[in-house]
Amino acid sequence: MITVFDRIQIARQRTRNAAPGENRFFLFDWAVNQIEDRLSVIRRAFPVCVQVGARGKPLDQNRFGIETLVTTDLATALLKNTRPAVVCHEDFFPFAHQSLDLVVSPLCLHTVNDLPGALLQIRQSLKPDGAFVAAMLGGETLYELRQCLAEAELSLSGGMAPRVAPFADKPQMGGLLQRAGFALPVVDSDIVTVTYESVFSLMQDLRRMGEGNAVQSRDRRFTRRDLFLRAGELYAERFFEPDGKIRASFEIIFLLGWAPHASQQKPLRPGSAERRLADALGTQEITAGEKPH
């Protein structure tokens, strides 16, 4: 397994920002709200649920018939006032086979080193027809910051160190859900735009969220201030709003999958359609290797 993220550093970052205070977890709260919206159209109860990630608010137990809600996180400090709770890595899911009705994860899976393994363990922990709903940061997240930091560093030093985590995209996540054995997988995304006074206030907010640079191959040396000053200038020139603030994009990918069950809808057998697609579209059918007239 390739180690992309420094999980010890991630635990430190989350622990540093575990104390109560200003609303630094607004993005996580928003993700929980979106997960709840998706669950609201499913007309059934989920007696035993696990919420992966303790940043932000807990899932509303009363809305979804949840009798037991277990919260997990890598950082012990985030679980101090939460019961029941389990301290664990996201890619070492310590729940029994077919023991859960629902697993949700608001913005926690994007820093997992073994994401295919984590998804497989989640699916195996679900009872047949159990549900998995997650939100995770996607490939367009912080593209503005990445672009400006890279250009600033190249112009000042002629090289470039990884400063923003790599993110998966929708096609990759759809493939990983299928690979993990989820039935009826659904993947969609939304872009959340947040405005800031400067690049420094953006980076401060990321640190407060516990989302600082935790890439294993990051440059451990002290970063020159002129790098951030130049990146800030580029950012203000290219990604500004009418009020003078800068914008930062967060792509949130939503995942929905089910543990397989005999009652679920199955895809039709190839060749079983009663009408040809070409007839329905009013076009000419062309077989492989045949040129159109």
Report on this structure.
The protein is an alpha/beta fold. It is built from 8 helices and 7 strands; from the N terminus they run ααββββαβααβααβα. The chain has helices at 7-16, 26-39, 115-125, 143-157, 170-179, 199-209, 225-238, 277-281, and strands at residues 48-52, 68-73, 85-87, 100-106, 126-137, 183-196, 246-258. Strands 3-2-1-4-5-7-6 form a 7-stranded mixed β-sheet, sandwiched between helices. Strand 4 (100-106), helix 3 (115-125) and strand 5 (126-137) form a beta-alpha-beta unit. It is globular. The model has no long low-confidence stretch (mean pLDDT 88).
Outline of this structure?
With 293 residues, the chain is an alpha/beta fold. Helix content is 31%, strand content 20%.
Note the topology.
Elements: H1 7-16, H2 26-39, E1 48-52, E2 68-73, E3 85-87, E4 100-106, H3 115-125, E5 126-137, H4 143-157, H5 170-179, E6 183-196, H6 199-209, H7 225-238, E7 246-258, H8 277-281
Parallel strand pairs: 1-2, 1-4, 2-3, 4-5
Antiparallel strand pairs: 5-7, 6-7
Beta-strand content: 15-25%
The overall average pLDDT, rounded, is 88
- What is the number of E strands? 7
Q: What spatial order of strands do you see in the largest sheet?
A: 3-2-1-4-5-7-6
Class from secondary-structure proportions: alpha/beta
Which consecutive residue ranges, at least 5 long each, have pLDDT under 50?
Answer: none
Secondary structure tally, helices = 8
Cα Rg: 22 Å
Largest sheet: 7 strands, mixed
Outline type: globular
> Quaternary arrangement of the chains shown?
single chain
Q: Give helix % range.
A: 25-40%
